[in-house]
UniProtKB/TrEMBL annotation:
This is MerR family transcriptional regulator. The lineage of its organism: Bacteria, Bacillati, Actinomycetota, Actinomycetes, Kitasatosporales. It comes from the Bacteria. Residues 1-68 form the HTH merR-type domain. The keyword Transcription regulation applies.
């Protein structure tokens, strides 16, 4: 299918599809007239990419795991492992943000909130 049809079926812009192609997330072949031709399974794959992005996965992360997921996009084990790993990263980030919030809260009303915490008081 040509890029316009792929864009219509996925809700992505042609530019987004070209970008995904450039970074290797989707592959199309070139026809003799220079048009891109994408396989029908590109629709499902690009929908997966969009969902993964909404779940907080970066394009880099999606690309890193792309081969294994393209081969088994509905594999509960593979997806569960990736989701569990992402949850661990989110939990670590939440802990970092909680520490940062506590540090900021300790500095509120100190007169000079940019001074080191040991100097405040």
């Amino acid at each position: 299918m040509r890029i316009g049809e792929l864009a219509a079926q996925t809700g992505l812009s042609k530019d987004a599809i070209r970008f995904y192609e450039k970074i290797g997330l989707v592959t199309g072949r070139r026809l003799a007239n220079g048009y891109r031709d994408f396989p029908p399974e590109a629709v499902l794959w690009l929908q997966y990419v969009r969902t993964a992005q909404k779940l907080g996965f970066s394009l880099t992360e999606i690309a890193q795991h792309g081969e294994e997921l393209r081969d088994a996009p509905d594999s509960a084990d593979a997806l569960s492992a990736l989701l569990a790993e992402k949850i661990q990263l989110i939990d670590a980030r939440i802990a970092e943000l909680a520490t940062l919030r506590a540090d900021l809260a300790a500095r509120v009303g100190t007169g000079c909130p940019l001074r080191a915490a040991e100097q405040v008081g």
